Amino acid sequence: MVRLRTAELFALDLETLAREAQRITRQNFGRTISLYAPLYLANYCENQCLYCGFSARLRIQREKLGPEQIAAECAALAATGIQNILLLTGESHKHTPLGYLLAAAEVVKKYFPSISIEVQPMETEEYRALVEAGVDGLAVYQETYDREIYARLHPAGRKRNFQYRFETPARAAQAGIRQISLGALLGLGDWRPDVEALFGHLNALESEYPGVDFSLSFPRMLPVEGAVQPCIVSDADMVRILCVARILFPRVGINLSTREPARFRDHVFPLGVTRMSAGSATTVGGYAQSLQGHDAQFSISDERSLAEIKTMLLNKEYDPVFTDWRRM
Ligand code: SF4
């Protein structure tokens, strides 16, 4: 297909987009899907994002795992076969500062060859220290690229600073983080301008930092008790977004989380997805039996275990990949 501009691609019919996206995905990634799991270390947060279950304005039970609890979580997850881990916290410089994250990474790297983080945006030097401690991936989502909506949905905390967040992937790239995932939280406003701005952000970063392995995420907002309710992003919209992303960025990884229902994930992953979360818990201490039962950041739609997702992939003649990276 001749390289079309974003607007022209969005105007194509779904069938044409899907055919092309699947062809490009097979050509560049074969029939493989990397699997990972999130591990929530803490739910303290200094921000008040109006769409999130961890917002500082909500009265929920706050928790932070200590080294022994982290080890218990890791052991429970590693026993399932997971090797790629995404460590998450709320964004709290007080409760989960750099020192806490470095200590956590020291524990986690005994169990997993690859560690990504989704925590408060930090300075380049702080990211350097995390790389030294074994962290090789970062997820940081702009949420929305519309400055007016951004200001309205982030009324308090450091996250109010749109520009600092926007420049976070560049600081991480300068620090030597190998894999960086960008995203927009779909449903905060009109999805189309957000997705186009996300593509522009990625384009600029890829030109500036060609050695970094960038990936895209399109989390679709789910209703959370006490939070603003999402604008509708239909399944057809989601398919369109995935396909256009794949066609515009043939070699970029695309993540699909357990926010999406099992049926939807099973149908759309061949169109461009390269990484899926599996067997996810979105509560602090969600894996080790003794720590279960806390408030979740958002609800999960696909509640299948890692073994069930693996079986689904094998049945569709895809290879589930557990690790494609090892520290030397
Ligand atoms: S989205 Fe992140 S920063 Fe915002 S309230 Fe939730 S945990 Fe905190």
Low-confidence runs of at least 5 consecutive residues: none
Number of helices: 12
Count of separate structural domains: 1
Morphology call: globular
Query: Considering DSSP H and I runs of 4 or more, what fraction of the residues is helical?
Result: 25-40%
Compute the separation of the termini in Å: 40 Å
Radius of gyration: 19 Å
Could you explain the architecture of this structure?
With 328 residues, the protein is of the alpha/beta class. Helices cover 38% and strands 15% of the residues. The protein has an 8-stranded parallel barrel with strand order 1-2-3-4-5-6-7-8, surrounded by 5 helices. β7, α11 and β8 form a beta-alpha-beta unit. The chain has one domain: Alpha-Beta Barrel (TIM Barrel), CATH 3.20.20.70. The longest helix has 18 residues. Bound molecules: iron/sulfur cluster. The site of iron/sulfur cluster has 9 residues, from loops.
Quick take:
By secondary structure, the chain is of the alpha/beta class.
Fold blueprint:
Blueprint: H1 6-11, H2 14-29, E1 32-40, H3 67-78, E2 84-88, H4 98-108, E3 114-118, H5 124-132, E4 135-143, H6 147-153, H7 162-166, H8 168-175, E5 179-184, H9 191-208, E6 213-217, H10 235-248, E7 253-256, H11 262-268, E8 275-277, H12 306-315, E9 319-321
Parallel strand pairs: 1-2, 1-8, 1-9, 2-3, 3-4, 4-5, 5-6, 6-7, 7-8
The protein binds iron/sulfur cluster.
Iron/sulfur cluster is lined by residues 45, 47, 49, 52, 54-55, 90-91, 159.
